[in-house]
Fold this protein.
Amino acid sequence: MTAPTKELRSGRIDGREPAVRLDAVSKVYGRELLALDRVTLSVARGEFVCLLGASGCGKSTLLNLVAGLDRATAGTIDTGGARIAMMFQEPALFPWLTVSANIELALRVTSTGAGTTRKQRRARAAELLETVHLGDFGGKRPHELSGGMRQRVALARALAQDADVLLMDEPFGALDAMTRDLLHDELERIWRERGLSVLFVTHNVREAVRLGDRVVLLSSRPGTVIEDYKITLDRPRRTDSGEVTGQAATITDRLKQEVLRHARRAPAASGPDAATGTTPSGGER
Ligand SMILES: Nc1ncnc2c1ncn2[C@@H]1O[C@H](COP(=O)(O)OP(=O)(O)OP(=O)(O)O)[C@@H](O)[C@H]1O
């Protein structure tokens, strides 16, 4: 069992340069809704970091800030000019375009794809679809695919951006456990092959332990880093292995403690909703 480690304020993680570095980042919505409170967090180059926390603690807010979709109220975010791609729970594909055309469109709007011919983009789209094991489906429309296949297309589209950093907001949250398992394997392979830095938001503790080099816990709102677990289990891991389940149980206990602390402090936030933000280690969502 790994002990929680403290956030490395220097930004260097195990001697590696950070790909993403947040320093005392806060976000206030409107006049007074404090969503994030002085979050300090780094993701090293090539590192896979999972972010866990109760519902509404600011995980999506944090990803949006790193992606540059919104601005922090205070603090700094340094991505060192890295190319960033984002993937959400909904694949958000254009339904009237074929799978291949969805990828080609992404290629057309990226700096790496700009200036390429249509034929080159089609060939690149085919390569990317091969990468996610959808080589035979380029001519299909999104509605002809299963949910897991659509998320693979979304992953291929994210890869089309030739990103160094992949931000993933519950990308597999809507999938069944078996499909999710398969996608974990594929994501892990692609992450390794491409040396990506990944920041992955999930409510599923076992998924976090299955995938992460580190699992970072945010407090209930306002979100701030309360634990940073280093996961040193050998890869590939199995979500249902004893080691993964054991570490997930420790993290789940810590999360429950945090949810209860928050509920005691703010009675309005108690009850089932406050507690269901994160699945217990034994549960699937
Ligand atoms: N654009 C916005 N304007 C105002 N408040 C917002 C906005 N986006 C998020 N919030 C609020 O900020 C807080 C954090 O929201 P956020 O979506 O980042 O949490 P989360 O941890 O991703 O939640 P969940 O796990 O349920 O997806 C919530 O109280 C939410 O209502």
